Amino acid sequence: MTDTRPSEISVELGRLTYKVNRPRLKKYLCLAEIRERFVDAAKDHDAEAASSRIIEYIEAAIESSINANLPWQEIAEAYLRLLDLCELLIQPPLLMYSSRTPKKDAWDYDGRTWYMWSHLFARKYGWSLEYIAELVPDDAIALLQEIFIEDQLRQEWEWSLSEVSYKKEGDKVRHVPLPRPAWMSLAAASKKEVKKVKIRRDFIPVGNVIRLGANENPDDT
Amino acid sequence: MKILTIHEAIKLYFLLLPHLPEIDYNNVEDINLLEFFRELLDKIIKSGRHRDYLDIVMLATGKSFEEIQYLEGPDTLNLLISSFIENDVIRMIVFCRVITNAWRSG
């Protein structure tokens, strides 16, 4: 997929112009975390925290401190432009179908996402932290999904070899598949096509048939 | 007239939120500010949450409770409308809706 979006934008704040590049993975994850904390604050209708997160997001994106007392319009415009700059080009199922409110682990802390991701990439591909930090976020997310898929398929294979994956039902033995994560199941369900079944004309109800599909061929029935 | 900071704008949005007229905020140009204002006041009056009105006036105009106390009703309204115009309050609502609705929709 070709990325035709500009890799750099200019943001004006308090009569100063900041040039901002599309973030690489480490910065992208840092911004994503701030955005998540903003979402939490917005859910709680906490104006103080929400506005602080907006300022924090802008400051992290432009890598400079700003005056929080600037008119709201200036901050809002900069924030929207920066959010747009960080938009991903791809929408992998891992992101689309993941829980919007992930369960927080007891061992979670601010900034953990970067360490979690870099750990996965370093373990899988042997890349250095510096190399991982500079990955294009779209590539990183696609690769992360591949890591998860590979792990899941391997676990499914190992599960299928285990006795505990078979359940005796009367005389028959049934294989119980290993449950898949929600994002995989939901993605599979969304791709499942409803099978078209032809119905004989004399089986359809009598009366006027209103065809809602514009391209529907009346001879299909 | 007081220009709101981002903190004040978001605070004002959360104050306005329960009373916002149910109109199409996607077409900002089509929204009549006076009509919007009238509906907003109607909703505040009907809700019985008159304290919200006072909080909205204080926040939008930057006036203290004591200052507002000595103002005539129409003067307070005029001040509030002026602040809404100056602060482009409809765009402010649209901005806050866009950024705060992200956790609901997407």
Ordered list of secondary-structure elements with their pairings:
The complex is a heterodimer of chains A (221) and B (106).
Chain A lengths: L7 E6 L2 E6 L3 H19 L3 H16 L9 H14 L7 H4 L15 H14 L3 H5 L3 H24 L5 E4 L2 E4 L6 H10 L30
Antiparallel strand pairs in A: 1-2, 3-4
Helix pairs in contact in A: 1-2, 2-3
Chain B lengths: L5 H11 L16 H15 L2 H12 L3 H5 L3 H14 L2 H17 L1
Short account of what is shown:
The complex is a heterodimer of chains A (221) and B (106). With 221 residues, chain A is mostly helical.
Provide a descriptive summary of the structure in words:
The complex is a heterodimer of chains A (221) and B (106). Chain A has 221 residues and is mainly alpha-helical. Chain A contains 8 helices and 4 strands, in the order ββαααααααββα. A two-stranded antiparallel ribbon of chain A has the order 1-2. Chain A has a two-stranded antiparallel ribbon with strand order 3-4. The longest helix of chain A has 24 residues. Chain A is extended, with a radius of gyration of 25 Å. Chain A starts with 7 loop residues before the first strand and ends in a 30-residue tail after the last helix. The mean pLDDT of chain A is 87. Chain B has 106 residues and is mostly helical. Chain B starts with 5 loop residues before the first helix and ends with a helix. At the A-B interface, α1, α2 and α3 of A face α1 and α6 of B.
